[in-house]
């Protein structure tokens, strides 16, 4: 068996979360803390490509010791503290892996295994066109090990072997023993298949159980881009696939309540789309950004992102896409309590939807049918406080939904229960809530559970109404998720 650069990096223990570093972040979001790191770096003349994902990986224990540039920045930010005080392992405990390189790893190949940084379009201190930090590409071995394992393979499906095995992909046990090579059509196909697989499992089971396992293939996809491709057409497919994968992973974060992570993934997809001039990917990234902004309580941003998506999406020729984007805009107007703006956007969405499907409809829009149209309209009326109208649309959404989309059936029914409860119909709300509880064995979605918890609180004063007490008791017996 030939030696491999990855052997020494494989650890029998899973990463240990860096709780000390997490405490230092306090109430700031990962993105806000990353901006502080970049500002501190500028104060001492360093330049680091720090973003929310890097902070998340430090806190998760994936980066056991920072490189020297980050060390200088962190010690500048927290005077008097040592790396150990910040929760990091001694450099001597991880440095040994740097010396164990095969003859194939040269000055030209070092650093090609790092993912593109995620990009916040509102943060102009980042450069979305720089694939990795050129000021210290050699030191961060902890960051690159998982990526190197992910793409040092010979064939397509093994691109995601280390990361998507738990989601149903077969693992090629000998993959790690083969040298890296430029990506080809089979690798591009593996990335595209990873996107489809994630979407399929999310439709059936929800996001909570998938998010952490789906982050690794995203890193692998960007590592493949860094490794280079054999043809431009392959590069185009890889960029598009990596961007769609970033959106899919972002959605898993979004639906499981990790809004900061989702924002970072969507921004990464948007940067990829703009670097490659891909309007379809850009429209998709803006579409999801609008949805996230609405859910995160930033309705004005939701309107702006939806309008940006529509400007980009017009050239794609898909009426169904424009219909969905109009609904994203309607959600933002509802959050701003602008009933007129919301109604106008809803009318536009309905008219565009009625033009029917076309060959120009993006593949990712397979979820968008009449049920989703009804469900998104229900959410608008709910936000505006029109509970009877919201309940009417939510009920229709649940009835129309294809049984394949188990997660959406649970979502629409949970929204129906909440609308009924707030609209003064507790017995009907309890019955709908019971139907959601029946589905929770198949669906893991923080969004659904959050809606259901709110419904239970609304129903507490009505526990004597028919069926309410039984619903409340069964809901109270649910295991609480972290």
Please write out the topology:
Blueprint: H1 19-25, H2 30-43, H3 52-60, H4 68-77, H5 91-95, H6 141-151, H7 161-164, H8 185-205, H9 211-227, H10 232-255, H11 259-276, H12 279-295, H13 299-313, H14 319-335, H15 339-353, H16 370-383, H17 387-400, H18 406-422, H19 426-439, H20 446-459, H21 468-476
Helix pairs in contact: 2-3, 2-4, 6-9, 8-9, 8-10, 9-10, 10-11, 10-12, 11-12, 12-13, 12-14, 13-14, 14-15, 14-16, 15-16, 16-17, 16-18, 17-18, 18-19, 18-20, 19-20, 19-21, 20-21
Characterization of this structure:
There is one protein chain. With 482 residues, the protein is mainly alpha-helical. Helix content is 59%, strand content 0%. It folds into 4 domains: 1-99, no CATH class; 157-162 and 180-276, no CATH class; 278-368, Serine Threonine Protein Phosphatase 5, Tetratricopeptide repeat (Alpha Horseshoe), CATH 1.25.40; 382-482, Serine Threonine Protein Phosphatase 5, Tetratricopeptide repeat (Alpha Horseshoe), CATH 1.25.40. The two termini are 43 Å apart. The relative contact order is 0.07.
């Amino acid at each position: 068996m030939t030696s491999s650069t990855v052997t020494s990096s494989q650890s029998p223990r899973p990463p240990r979360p860096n709780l000390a570093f997490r405490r230092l972040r306090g109430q700031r979001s990962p993105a806000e803390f990353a901006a502080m790191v970049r500002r501190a770096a500028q104060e001492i003349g360093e330049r680091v490509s720090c973003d929310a994902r890097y902070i998340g990986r430090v806190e998760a224990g994936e980066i056991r010791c920072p490189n020297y540039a980050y060390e200088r920045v962190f010690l500048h930010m927290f005077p008097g503290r040592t790396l150990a005080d910040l929760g990091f392992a001694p450099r001597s405990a991880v440095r040994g892996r740097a010396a164990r390189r095969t003859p194939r790893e040269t000055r030209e190949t070092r650093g090609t295994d790092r993912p593109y940084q995620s990009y916040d379009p509102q943060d102009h201190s980042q450069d979305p066109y720089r694939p990795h930090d050129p000021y210290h590409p050699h030191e961060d071995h902890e960051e690159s090990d998982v990526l190197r394992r992910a793409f040092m393979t010979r064939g397509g499906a093994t691109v995601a072997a280390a990361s998507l095995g738990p989601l149903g992909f077969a693992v090629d046990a000998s993959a790690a023993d083969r040298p890296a090579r430029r990506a080809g059509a089979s690798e591009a196909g593996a990335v595209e298949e990873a996107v489809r697989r994630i979407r399929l499992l999310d439709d059936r089971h929800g996001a909570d159980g998938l998010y952490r396992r789906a982050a690794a293939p995203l890193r692998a996809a960007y590592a493949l881009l860094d490794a280079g491709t054999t043809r431009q057409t392959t590069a185009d497919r890889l960029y598009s696939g990596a961007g769609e994968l970033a959106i899919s992973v972002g959605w898993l974060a979004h639906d499981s309540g990790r809004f900061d992570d989702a924002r970072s993934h969507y921004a990464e997809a948007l940067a990829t789309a703009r670097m490659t001039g891909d309007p379809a990917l850009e429209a998709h990234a803006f579409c999801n950004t609008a949805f996230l902004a609405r859910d995160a309580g930033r309705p004005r941003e939701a309107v702006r992102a939806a309008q940006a998506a529509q400007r980009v999406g017009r050239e794609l020729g898909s009426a169904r896409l424009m219909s969905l984007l109009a609904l994203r805009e309607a959600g933002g107007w509802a959050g701003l309590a602008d009933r007129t703006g919301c109604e106008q956007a809803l009318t536009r969405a309905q008219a565009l939807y009625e033009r029917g499907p076309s060959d120009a409809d993006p593949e990712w829009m397979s979820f968008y049918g009449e049920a989703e149209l009804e469900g998104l309209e229900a959410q608008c009326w709910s936000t505006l406080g029109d509970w009877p109208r919201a309940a009417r649309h939510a009920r229709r959404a649940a009835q129309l939904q294809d049984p394949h989309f188990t997660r959406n059936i649970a979502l629409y029914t949970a929204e129906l229960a909440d609308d009924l409860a707030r609209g003064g119909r507790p017995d009907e709300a309890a019955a709908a809530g019971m139907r959601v509880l029946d589905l929770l064995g198949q669906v893991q979605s923080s969004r659904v559970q959050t809606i259901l918890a709110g419904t239970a609180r609304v129903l507490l004063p009505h526990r004597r109404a028919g069926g309410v007490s039984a619903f409340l008791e069964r809901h109270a017996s649910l295991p609480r998720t972290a």
